[in-house]
Specification:
With 596 residues, the protein is mostly beta strands. The chain has one domain: Maltoporin, Chain A (Beta Barrel), CATH 2.40.170. It has 2 helices and 35 strands. The strands form 5 sheets. The protein has a 22-stranded antiparallel beta barrel. The protein has a 6-stranded mixed beta sheet with strand order 2-3-8-9-6-7, with no helix packed on it. The longest helix is centred in the middle third of the chain and has 5 residues.
């Protein structure tokens, strides 16, 4: 699998981390080159992150770190977990980027707790400059956005709202396989999406409190759902947190509630059968972080506890979780750490279950050398979503057990870039399979191997990267025929160039995606994509106000020649993902605003 990638300017920055950390990507949201509509646009700036799009709805349905699945990753907001057992990394769909000050994407693991098999996304709201902000934007397909707020050292308040129809036109040439006269331009109707976020933070001395609210209605549903426009989803999230911080100690307490309404149709053929489910999730958690240093020896530790209660179909009554993490760094450059997690489930009318996992690791970074070598064991307990499902269409599997993995990372940093080599072996990998015509169910896959090489360099405002990644997956230990992990790109090429002249910034981003396959059973290729995005930003003199213009997929390249089967003739297909559905074409976006 070949993957060429490039970081954008000026916001994303590869940060040189401590020896036991991978190089993570840190982005100042307000300095991002583009006017972000979705959080995934910023997450995908990391060279080792890829996304899988929903062909039928044209939106992103999954994020992947080095071949990981969505639920193998973590996401946090201001140091507290944002995900639940039912959502995984899909929590990015709830967040308005305009409320964030910084974004950190780390494919090597989380800041605390059991090391995930995938990566960690850390969202921060309290590191921006003081002052008010206002952003307004509009674009194609009735996109509308408004964000305003104020940030200071003691208080932060903000509200952000966005909505769009998501409809797009495409040339439906699937008839070339049967009747060429069926080819025509049609309009694909998407779910109308509306999202609102509100945030209020107060800080005085070592004390800090925060209230966060998010509401999402419509849009592309999460993993496992049938990606149809008749699928309806509504999520409400409330969270209140309180923390006390000292230089070497941090105590955090939080309570959260999540309400969800889900409607799944019986396919797209209007059979008249729909399944509607309402669920409620209450969460209480507390965590303690600490660190000590003595004679150049550094020790970090974390202990967290969480209690969850559920009301709804296909969910346990309650769960209890305990996480622990210990890091020790030696002055010669050696680092050791150990993560552990215990989980107890109280299912409805079923005997309680207990699950646990541990994750040790070791890293070495020679002093005064830009080298890093790391070997770690990774583990993940099955999520509640995978164990109990959500409806007839998303059936759980209570016989699932923990995933395990072993990863090796090496890194060489130099003045103009870096070279990274990594490999991972995962056992008992959990993946969703189609259980029947209209339902899906997770199951274990025997093992999977991932091998990757990433090279990145920059010079005079131009950045270029190259990534080679291969994946091999086996259904059983006796299986001698490996399959490619579904949804993972084989080829990806990306160039970004940006220049600034006085108060005018301009540039372009060109990328190539090729080599996707839908699933292991039906190795149907996805047509290549090579969109060209143009960006223009003008800042008013002596002010912080700016005007931004963005054109996505400017060339509107949606027709390509694809070989469906070896030896068969070339067939012209629209730019498509799953089930032959095309992806959106040209889009435009214009916005105005100011930043502190």
């Amino acid at each position: 699998m070949i993957f060429v990638y490039l970081l954008s300017l000026p916001g994303p920055t590869i940060v040189a981390p401590p020896p036991d950390r991978s190089p993570y990507l840190e982005i100042r949201t307000h300095d991002a080159l583009m006017f972000p509509q979705e959080l995934e646009e910023l997450i995908l700036e990391h060279p080792e992150v890829s996304g899988k799009q929903s062909g039928s709805l044209g939106g992103l349905s999954r994020l992947s770190f080095r071949g990981s699945r969505s639920l193998q990753n973590r996401m946090s907001l201001d140091g507290l977990p944002l995900t639940t057992g039912f959502t995984g990394l899909q929590a990015w769909r709830l967040i308005e980027p305009a409320l964030l000050s910084h974004l950190r994407v780390d494919p090597g693991g989380s800041e605390s707790g059991l090391t995930p098999i995938g990566g960690h996304v850390s969202l921060q709201t309290n590191r921006g400059n003081s002052g008010p902000w206002l952003q307004m934007a509009g674009g194609s397909y009735q996109f509308q956005h408004l964000s305003l707020g104020y940030r200071s050292r003691q208080i932060q308040i903000g509200t952000s709202l966005s909505r769009d129809q998501g409809d797009f036109s495409y040339f439906d040439d699937r008839g070339t396989l049967f009747f060429k006269d069926d080819d025509q331009w049609v309009t694909r109707q998407n779910n109308a999406r509306q999202r609102i976020n509100s945030l209020f933070s107060w800080q005085r001395g070592p004390y800090r409190s925060q209230w966060f609210f998010a509401r999402l209605s419509g849009g592309v549903p999460g993993p496992g759902h049938r990606q149809t426009r008749a699928t309806a989803e509504s999520i409400h999230l409330h969270r209140f947190s309180f923390s006390h911080r000292k230089p070497n100690r941090r105590l955090q307490f939080y309570v959260a509630q999540r309400l969800q309404n889900q409607v799944d149709p019986l396919g797209e053929w209007n059979f008249g059968t729909k399944n509607e489910e309402n669920s409620e999730h209450d969460q209480i958690g507390i965590s303690v972080h600490g660190r000590t240093s003595r004679q150049a020896h550094h020790l970090r530790w974390m202990l967290a506890s969480q209690w969850n209660a559920f009301r709804g179909q296909n969910s346990p009554d309650q769960t209890g979780m305990i996480d622990g993490d210990l890091h020790w760094r030696h002055p010669i450059g050696m680092s050791f750490w150990l993560g552990a997690k215990f989980q107890q489930l109280e299912p409805i009318e079923v005997q309680s279950q207990q699950q646990w996992a541990i994750s040790p690791g070791i890293a070495y970074s020679p002093p005064n050398r830009n080298l890093l070598f790391r070997l770690q064991s990774m583990a993940r307990l099955p999520s509640l979503f995978e164990l109990y499902g959500r409806s007839f269409f998303l059936q759980g599997n209570p016989n699932l057990h923990r995933e395990s993995g072993l990863g090796f990372d090496s890194l060489w940093r130099f003045k103009q870039g870096r070279i990274s080599l990594y490999t991972r072996t995962m056992r008992d990998l959990i993946e969703w399979d189609q259980n029947a015509q209209f339902s899906s169910r997770p199951r274990h896959r025997s093992k999977a191997h991932i091998l990757g090489l990433s090279v990145w360099a920059q010079h005079h405002g131009f950045q270029v990267g190259y990534r080679l990644q291969g994946t091999w997956a086996y259904d059983s230990d006796k299986d001698q025929s490996p399959h490619q992990l579904s949804g993972e790109p084989i080829h990806r090429l990306r160039f970004i160039w940006r220049q600034t002249w006085n108060t005018l910034s301009y540039g372009f981003r060109w990328q190539l995606h090729d080599g996707h396959f839908l699933d292991r059973a039906n190795l149907r290729p996805v047509a290549p994509q090579f969109p060209l995005d143009l960006h223009l930003r003008y800042r008013l003199k002596k002010t912080s106000a700016f005007l931004s213009l963005q054109i996505l997929n400017a060339l509107d390249q949606r027709r390509h020649h694809v070989v469906l089967l070896p030896g068969e003739r070339l067939v012209e297909l629209a730019l498509a993902d799953q089930a032959g559905y095309p992806l959106p074409g040209r889009r435009w976006l214009i916005g105005i605003g100011n930043r502190p």
